[in-house]
Amino acid sequence: MTVLEYRDYKEYLRDLCTSTDMTYVKLARAAKFPRQYIGQILRGKSHLNDDQGAAIARLLKFNELEMDYFIFLIQENKATSLETKKYFRNKLEKIHIELLRKATSNGKEENVYDTANSEEMSEYVMNVELQICHTLLSLPDFQVDMRKLAHHLGRSENEVEDLVLKLVELGFVEKRGLQFVPTKRFVHIPKSSRLAEQHAKSWRLNALSNPRASAEASLRFTSTIVASKTAKAELIRKMRGLLSEFHSNLEAAPNEHAFQINADVFSI
What we know:
Elements: H1 9-19, H2 24-31, H3 35-43, H4 50-59, H5 64-78, H6 82-105, E1 112-115, H7 119-126, H8 128-136, H9 140-143, H10 146-153, H11 157-170, E2 173-176, E3 179-182, E4 185-188, H12 194-209, H13 211-216, H14 229-248
Parallel strand pairs: 1-4
Antiparallel strand pairs: 2-3
């Protein structure tokens, strides 16, 4: 969990307190006000002031850019005019992109990041077939053989060519000789983006409609559970940890293939 995924600082702090060992008591102690007051702020219309926000940012060990982002988030959330909100929103976008670069480049060749706020990037985010084609082009077999890619997707060669050319146009894929190879560009969708929910729905619909999902499905699991909110938060924490560990341990291997994972935990 990172603050740069959020556009509502209250939602961030609430999620932090339900999915980690952070508590309202610790937040209140850092900001130097009664515990019940932090609850009133996070559930109501009142806001932290800049000093309180800075104290909480220090508690959470934010770096300088993260602290700036958090303070600007507070200021944008409590702004009353559209002009002021827009001013801080622009500040947040600039810091957001810079934070992503710093968090993920690790001294390697710098990637190119986009937030899903332009019409073109929105088109990519909303088109599951475009994203699937992008993913499959990371596999060498599909980079040189459009017929194989078309057969895999169940589409005509012309349809697949249109998808690939759109990826080239958006800068996600480049042609190298006879190969179409993914570049280092990708789109980040902040949790609070208007596109985030629709993006998730599109991928879940793909899981329901994709014939491979029913033919191959090596794991299908659905369950309703009655448990405490603490137990629910612990389950979410462990699931995030497992997925994070899986991603961090991935290494290039022969005979790679692409697969989709969906995970949802929500109240009913």
